[in-house]
């Protein structure tokens, strides 16, 4: 790595500290360097709060340290007034000498205008440092803005012989404490969590993030035939749930029933989530829902948690010609596999 890459790597590492806390905003980190020394650093810590550049400038021991400095920021500084004022203006006011940027901001409110502002003020701007790493870190944010849909992760748990539940649909405990924590971490890293009605009926899950610090996702339940019981935890626990039906429109506290019509398509559900501003959705089951996503091609990442056990019979996992990458051992009896999507 050259020096620019080392400072940018630091900005990317800092950005990850906002994981599970900033969506629908991107993960952003910022480092202020002078004479080959880091004088300030910061990251976007929570949705609605100060941006990375503001945190970095605030962290300087002496505010004048910004004058003539080199700023490394993992996303193009914003040029708009959103929940916070434009970062490009702050960098100009702080009289920085040059700004190194990892990725452009695809948000139409920014999209190149941050860079233009900096250049117009005589600041040198360099873009594309560790671009691929940044694109990976903010894959959800970039997918949302470029593909105009949420980023979709599919995840299921199965026995070694490929069953995800007992024959009668009753759940099987596949997780161990470590893999459960990992599931909850994944939940904090998605803005929505989606399941079919059958999962609610059989498991009555809470689908929140209890075992990892971070935001819980909005529960999205596909319930075209209005089958989920009113006393389900996702309806009763006071947290936000969207129930997607054909014809029922209703509201009960943080629970919202959406009617998408007789012609009930996954694409319409995804469009609704896009319009509501969700940048990512974790699809956690069951077999029918996961199969529908796999068949529609609507997914970006696929994970399987496999427990060292043979069930012999049960409800089969989604059958698709998936090429799994080598599994990672999680705890005593779980292996996690990610699909190789090329
Ligand atoms: C930056 N630095 O740390 C972040 C940026 O509503 P706001 O004011 O928080 O603005 C959110 C938008 O700002 C977000 O969609 C993205 O375009 C940009 N995020 N920009 O300069 C940051 N988080
Ligand atoms: Zn900003």
Automatic annotation (TrEMBL):
Its cofactor is Zn(2+). Residues 2-126 form the CMP/dCMP-type deaminase domain. Binds 1 zinc ion. Keywords: Hydrolase, Metal-binding, Multifunctional enzyme, NADP, Oxidoreductase, Riboflavin biosynthesis, Zinc. Its EC number is 3.5.4.26, 1.1.1.193. CDD domains: Riboflavin_deaminase-reductase (cd01284). InterPro entries: APOBEC/CMP_deaminase_Zn-bd, CMP_dCMP_dom, Cytidine_deaminase-like, DHFR-like_dom_sf, Eubact_RibD, RibDG_C, Riboflavin_Biosynth_HTPR. It catalyses: 2,5-diamino-6-hydroxy-4-(5-phosphoribosylamino)-pyrimidine + H2O + H(+) = 5-amino-6-(5-phospho-D-ribosylamino)uracil + NH4(+); 5-amino-6-(5-phospho-D-ribitylamino)uracil + NADP(+) = 5-amino-6-(5-phospho-D-ribosylamino)uracil + NADPH + H(+). Signal peptide: none annotated. One of its GO terms (molecular function) is diaminohydroxyphosphoribosylaminopyrimidine deaminase activity. The keyword Zinc applies. Converts 2,5-diamino-6-(ribosylamino)-4(3h)-pyrimidinone 5'-phosphate into 5-amino-6-(ribosylamino)-2,4(1h,3h)-pyrimidinedione 5'-phosphate. In the C-terminal section; belongs to the HTP reductase family. In the N-terminal section; belongs to the cytidine and deoxycytidylate deaminase family. PANTHER family: 2,5-DIAMINO-6-RIBOSYLAMINO-4(3H)-PYRIMIDINONE 5'-PHOSPHATE REDUCTASE, DIHYDROFOLATE REDUCTASE FAMILY PROTEIN (AFU_ORTHOLOGUE AFUA_8G06820). NCBIfam families: eubact_ribD (TIGR00326). This is Riboflavin biosynthesis protein RibD. It comes from Aquirufa ecclesiirivi.
